Amino acid sequence: xxxxxxxxxxxxxxxxxxxxxxxxxxxxxxxxxxxxxxxxxxxxxxxxxxxxxxxxxxxxxxxxxxxxxxxxxxxxxxxxxxxxxxxxxxxxxxxxxxxxxxxxxxxxxxxxxxxxxxxxxxxxxxxxxxxxxxxxxxxxxxxxxxxxxxxxxxxxxxxxxxxxxxxxxxxxxxxxxxxxxxxxxxxxxxxxxxxxxxxxxxxxxxxxxxxxxxxxxxxxxxxxxxxxxxxxxxxxxxxxxxxxxxxxxxxxxxxxxxxxxxxxxxxxxxx
Length: 271
What we know:
One of its GO terms (molecular function) is aminopeptidase activity. The structure is a single chain. An eight-stranded mixed beta sheet has the order 1-2-4-3-5-6-7-8. The chain is globular, with a radius of gyration of 18 Å. It is of the alpha/beta class. It has two domains: 2-120 and 184-268, 3-Layer(aba) Sandwich (Rossmann fold); 122-177, no CATH class. The chain has helices at 63-76, 89-100, 120-132, 136-143, 149-161, 167-177, 186-199, 202-210, 232-237, 252-255, 257-268; strands spanning 2-4, 10-16, 21-25, 43-47, 82-87, 105-111, 216-221, 241-246.
């Protein structure tokens, strides 16, 4: 099903299931919806962000533009209010939307986000290299040169394998994330990352979050290579937040589906 934005961009979107509407915001930026294995007792609305996956490859690329696209998805499906669940960069997008439109969000799921500051990146780089182990040299080689589509996918699978705890199953999980393969939009990723570095300021965001009354569930994977202390200031700032830590890496609904579903059902869904 196609969603047309106010500037004419065509977005892929899909709604399945019944019950309270939950709109999902995938990670990236520049990736696509990977919530195919997510099972919640709700009406799940999935979509590919602008320039990504099955959506039209065109800009402009910015957080504000992506948030406006998210609102177009909400309107397309006739939702006055919705549960908003975002993963990784999508958690940041969902938080930004909730801050701008709290009246349209019944509850916020903030899954594996990286908080409000930038101090996490150095520790992340060290943890990433350590967990990738023998594969780090190949990752560096691929990153450092032009790649064909098969090598693009190989690089992504290598990179995503660090998101899981058990090395015996990590590559299989990463392969699931890369199937189907739509190709990373590096232009989108670079544009929004550069914008975030200019504008995503912890002190301003803490102040804004103090006024956000929307019930918020923060879900962390205890073994995420991104240090979870990065989310502490967000938890402290939000007046109505619950934090759940699961024994997983960065993608908890794949490694601990029952526990993830239980947490989301308990804290996000009213039925």
